[in-house]
């Protein structure tokens, strides 16, 4: 898989020779999308966006109550993220996104050329630590109620997850090692 990541964000006008691709991290809750995504964006010197921040309040409340989101709940959220990505790619600005995008249809919506950039302009990085590792991480993260997503939703997230033949996959690995491998894949 060729990532061809740019190392800086563009600062001048658009042009194909200057344009950099986007990167989206996908995976279930606790897979490390935000942690690894932020770390990669810092290395690349470009903005990081967390899909969590783009959910409507109703979605957040639903998850907080331990109810999984359905296709209808996720659709407008995915459209918002597709628009965000499109705006950056059209301007030739690199960005890193964390978005669970669990199902193939969600990734198609997020990356389809009519709503978002050319599929080949966006690298999909799939994070898939083991179930045991995910449970451990979510339990630690939920201590003190610092995150709205309860560990009890992990099984529904895993049930929704569909594989992506175009993605670069990582299992239970150290965050810095993942970032290094992504950068080396350029
Ligand atoms: N590669 C990793 N190794 C160990 N712990 C990690 C790793 N990536 C993330 N974590 C930890 O797991 C928890 C969930 O990570 P987070 O980035 O919030 O996942 P997500 O955004 O996919 O829900 C956090 O407490 C984070 O510190
Ligand atoms: O589609 C979904 O069901 C949600 O987007 C979900 O996958 C996401 O995981 C939550 O927003 C919690 O956020 P974290 O992924 O950061 O736990």
Automatic annotation (TrEMBL):
GO terms for cellular component: cytoplasm. The keyword Nucleotide-binding applies. Gene3D superfamilies: P-loop containing nucleotide triphosphate hydrolases. One of its GO terms (molecular function) is gluconokinase activity. Keywords: ATP-binding, Kinase, Nucleotide-binding, Transferase. Pathway: Carbohydrate acid metabolism; D-gluconate degradation. Pfam families: AAA_33 (PF13671). This is Gluconokinase. It comes from Apatococcus fuscideae.
């Amino acid at each position: 898989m060729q990532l061809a990541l740019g190392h800086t964000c563009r600062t001048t006008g658009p042009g194909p020779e200057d344009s950099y691709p986007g990167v989206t991290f996908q995976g279930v809750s606790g897979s490390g999308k935000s942690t690894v995504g932020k770390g990669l964006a810092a290395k690349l010197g470009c903005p990081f966006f967390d899909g969590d921040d783009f959910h409507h309040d109703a979605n957040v409340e639903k998850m907080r109550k331990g109810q999984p989101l359905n296709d209808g709940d996720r659709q407008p959220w995915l459209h918002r993220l597709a628009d965000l990505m499109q705006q950056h790619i059209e301007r030739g600005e690199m960005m890193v996104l964390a978005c669970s995008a669990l199902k193939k249809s969600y990734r198609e919506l997020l990356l389809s050329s009519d709503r978002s950039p050319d599929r080949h302009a966006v690298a999909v990085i799939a994070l898939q630590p083991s179930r045991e590792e995910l449970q451990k991480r979510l339990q630690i993260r939920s201590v003190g109620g610092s995150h709205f997503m309860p560990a009890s939703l992990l099984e529904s997230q895993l049930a929704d997850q569909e594989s992506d033949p175009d993605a670069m996959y990582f299992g239970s690995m150290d965050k810095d090692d993942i970032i290094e491998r992504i950068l080396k894949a350029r």
